[in-house]
Amino acid sequence: MCSESCGCSSDIVGIIEKYDSDKRNLIPLLHELQDELGYISPEVMETIAEKLGTTVGQVHGVATFYTLFYTKPRGKNIVRMCNSTACHIEGGRKIREAVSAALGIAPGETTQDGGFTLEVVSCMGLCGVAPAIMVNDDVYGNLTPEMVPNILGKYREAS
Amino acid sequence: MAFYRAHILVDTGTPAVLKGAMGMKSALVDEIKKRGLDKEIKVVETGDLGLHGVGLALIVYPEGVIYANITAQDVPEIVEEHLLKGRQVKRLVYTGPSSAVVDGAAKPRSREMRVILEHIGVIDPTSIDEYIAHGGYEAIAKALTQMTPEDVVAEVKASQLKGRGGAGFPTGLKWEFTAKADGENKAVVCNADEGEPGNFKDRLIMEGDPHQIIEGMIIAGYAVGAHEGYIYIRGEYHQSVSHTEKAIADAREAGLLGKDILGSGFDFDITIFKGAGAYICGEETALLESLEGRRGESRMKPPFPPTSGLMAAPTVINNVETLASVPRIIDRGADWYAGIGTEKSKGTKIFSPCGDVLYPGVYEVPFGVTLRDIIYNMAGGIKGGKRFKACLMGGPSGVLVGEDALDRRLCAEDLAPGAGALIVLDEDKCIVDLMQNCAEFFHHESCGQCVPCREGTKRILEVLNWWTTGAGSEDDLRLLEALGETMSLTSKCGLGQFAAVAFKSSLPLFRDEYLAHVKDKVCPAGVCAMDKVLEEVK
Amino acid sequence: MAINLTINGQAVAAEAGDTILTAARRAGVYIPTLCYHSDLMPDGVCRVCSVEVKGQRTLCAACCYPVAEGMEVLTHSPRVRESRRMIVELMLANHPQECLTCSRNSKCELQALAREFGIQEVHFKGERKMADVDTSSLSVFRNPEKCILCNRCVRTCEDIQSVAALHASKRGWDTTIVPGMGDELASVVCVNCGQCINRCPTGALTANDPSSKVWDAIHDSTKHVVVQTAPAVRAAIGEEFGMPAGSRVTGKMVTALKMMGFDRVMDTDFTADLTIMEEGSELIQRVTEGGVLPQLTSCSPGWIKFIEYYYPELLPHLSTCKSPQQMFGALAKTYYAEKTGIDPKDIISVSIMPCTAKKFECDRPEMTDSGYKDVDYVLTTREAAQMMREAGIDLPNLPESEYDDPLGMSTGAAVIFGNTGGVMEAALRTAYAIITGTELDNVNIEAVRGMEGVREATVMVGELPVKAAVAHGLANARQVLEGIKNGRFKDYHFIEIMCCPGGCIGGGGQPQPTSEEIRKARIKAIYDEDEAMTLRKSHTNPAVQKLYEEFLGKPLSHKSHELLHTDYTPRDRKTVKAVKVKVES
């Protein structure tokens, strides 16, 4: 079970031990804990630091360096809008504006109902189908602004 | 292997999946079953076929006919007509220029030459049997049984293979340094942290033919005396991870990974490491830091990884495309490989034209083809019949070239291709706007460790933000030029050293366009908002 | 084998393992640096030391680029000069332009580079990072706006002190050096040693400075302000006035403090001698009565906080003696008050320390045995010097004065408390006399001197082989504590531990900059001061003898325990709070 300070029911310690409590495995460990918990909370970072024999600052330093790790709760759906050069020249900005308008939030924000978190990412390697966005693990390419509301609507209904 | 009279390869690459590839595939399977053809025809999910901009696609073998822009509704017709009656559905047949996937059956109309992409779209990437049936793992058998590690290094050296990640360091030399370096626990690391905008070739190889990467890594391990391998895959590449994971598990099962590979006494195993969203980790020492569980901040060099890499042990780090080239070199010999390409650039290179081209995708060609050849003869030319304006070679960290470069040859002695991205701009695009986007990229991806990169990428972005909105002045132009020079000279790693290269290369080509923005406060292409100018007028 | 290279055309013979910088420095060639610090592993992040190496595509960071045979280096070529200017300009563009009101004005390394490179205008006119100043700690204030991300503090805290209170967080332009998870410094594990301040090139890290309160007390005619000066201060404060490191200014400093208006200028050295009497007696008692051994010294408050956090189970090893500062404080408001007839509530007790952890120590709740706060304000050496400057005092040219009685007299054994090995040596000088009944012929006990991080020695005290160890810097202390845990120091009697490299002379409150060379010069001054004293053994201090006669009785007496001894508090690293249960001594 989780350390007493956290109070959640996930087997955080079990996951950490699966990685031999080895500092070298911090990144795969953070991936798995985030998959389990949605984000890496301060309490979780403390537990990791304790188990890995490192400082919470070191864990925090790593967790805040990589854009795929979240230290705050995020929405049910993550919308990643690609800002790669290929997407940009194919009209990426208009797609981003359409997504922001449809959700009513700016990049980096989460909708009030917790349904969506919006992010801008550097490149998703989808330059062949630019402009592209990703919703969770799903890819949408060759987009036009008109397609955006329908795509997001599917996730709104599902959640 | 069961015998099928026909194989249908369905593009289930990342972009295809949400265009409905899985639905189309199950419709296909159902239809084949309904017609009682399921014992004769095999439907294979393949990775990204490299055919972009053509909707959903599938290929029917042995004919090698490509159907593009198909929907689930088209499936019964294809099955009925082509598979049952042997008549191609002409209205759906893809007649565009050949792409990576087009096998020998469809006559290439260009100078494409598939070495690394040979199996892509031909085999099921999740089947080790198919890889083996197509000659896979023969190179490792040859290396382990007929060659000494020194022979392997010599062969790779003789092939003159150079790193395909952009820097172009001779692979054989890198292996030799690592082989000769003192140290326990040597490692082979495959750099699959493809993050440069415009590049997606490594994703395609991992999704479409992961076994050749594994085979290349085993050979590298044998050559340098390493027993552990790591594939560092960027965290956003879900399907690359799953296909590579499956391939590793199958290879282990087949005795091709693990202890005593093929009874040779050589041990080697591979671990997949998922990145977490940091372009800097494509820089090899930042990648090592990340592999060791730390922030992806580049290390001081020297020492270089072949002397002191992962956990300070001698380490070979090669790009996906580089490692994927290795089995063919061992298989067919260095002479064969060195016979391809130009004097200084041997072998083939995968390019990924995108942006304003008609058929974005991946194309493998021998070094030395011209930029025009790829853009016009393979990628279909500029969309909408527009005029070519410029091409960003390799992505934001590459150089920008204009029309006069179209007939230059892509090779070390002429136009260096970088990692292979060709971001093409048509006449309607704005260079200043393009550079603003590149600046955003580097500002977002700088690790923040060294001053020139951290502070420099910020200032470049600020100035470009001003220019694209009508603010800023001509003085900034000179300032950025000088800043770019300092960043190239003094940044700690390649990210900062190359962050201003595109800008610097664009200045002499498009100085008038810059001056229009900073002096006349006009964006000639009409792309930039220039809203600060309006504010001033008000 | 020598490695031959040329620097600016001049032939230079370097050694294997040299970087361009170390080779150049040895050859007397100057290369500017910023993130480089001689105490730390190079990081190569500021790029100010970039030099041109023939054949290289880019410039190379001299601080971390290894020399090679035949290398041709240019340290000030036009490309190099242009690049350095640009780099410093980039830093200045993201730095508050408030040098005039910065505490590091004229002692800032960034400012010095700007002057050296002749930068008179910052051409970049963009955003500058904004952040709040963190004043939560009793010792160390952080101003992230002035931080240039050189990582010196991070490396110091992690590599020298093995505490790692500070880390880089986020990335790119947003990178910030933060305590813990971006918390206030007071809410993370920090031992208050101030080593980070000593190595900070700018004003991003400064000490919590109480000098205005001290001025108020001096100017308040109803208050009687006594000041004590720690041993290490006299060997360093001259540097603040442009004197070379290692200048001994004891008498001048006393004159200066009297000129500033302190009512009594007395000496922590007095209570250092007293510490030896108490701590030495405690050691003898532990040895003869079977107490917990090895006994660990307790005069370094950063070290105390460290063991409370990391090795609470070893607290019984700590001597129960208060630090000399706190012994002085307790006596100032009891013995001294009694003798002078001044109401202790009117006494303000100020100390001048080489240390920022002392600011934390004087605030510990248990340090009120006099019935008042034993020490009211702690000034660092730097802050005391600043007050002297404000008072228009030209320290180097002052006449010398003597310390005031009754807490002013001391011996050479007390002054060597200021450097690593000194407490050990002082204790051995007195223990020898107590155990053997005879006096040492040669009081210089070379076996415990030196700069090595951990030193071990067996010293014959008559027939008794005393096994002793000395450690300085907390990463070295950690090694010793692990050794105690795993039994390696099982048969040791006495171990001296100092929080800071070099001991107190390298403390976090000492003049900037710091380096091994500077610390060695200060240590030499301390030993010279000891040599120059007529009395060099604590038990021969007549004022200490008188204190026992008039007030305390004898070492380890009831009154001694009441005023001069203390107990320790295990601390929880997670909550950063003191744990309720105390370990009884």
Describe the structure.
The complex is a heterotrimer of chains A (159), B (538) and C (585). With 159 residues, chain A is an alpha+beta fold. Chain A folds into 2 domains: 54 residues, Orthogonal Bundle (Arc Repressor Mutant, subunit A), CATH 1.10.10; 82 residues, Glutaredoxin (3-Layer(aba) Sandwich). Chain A contains 7 helices and 4 strands, in the order H-H-H-H-E-H-H-E-E-E-H. In chain A, strand 3 and strand 4 form a beta hairpin. The radius of gyration of chain A is 18 Å and the shape is elongated. In chain B, strand 3 and strand 4 form a beta hairpin. Chain B is built from 19 helices and 13 strands. By secondary structure, chain B is α/β, with parallel strands linked by helices. Chain B starts with 5 loop residues before the first strand and ends with a helix. In chain B, the strands form 3 sheets. Chain B has a 5-stranded mixed sheet with strand order 10-9-13-11-12. In chain B, helix 8 crosses helix 11 and helix 14 packs antiparallel against helix 15. Chain C has 3 domains: 87 residues, Roll (Ubiquitin-like (UB roll)), CATH 3.10.20.740; 68 residues, Alpha-Beta Plaits; 354 residues, Rossmann fold, CATH 3.40.50.1780. Helices cover 33% and strands 14% of the residues of chain C. Chain C contains 18 helices and 19 strands. Chain C has a 5-stranded mixed sheet with strand order 2-1-5-3-4, with helices on both faces. Chains in contact: A-B, A-C, B-C. The interface between A and B is large, with 43 and 60 residues.
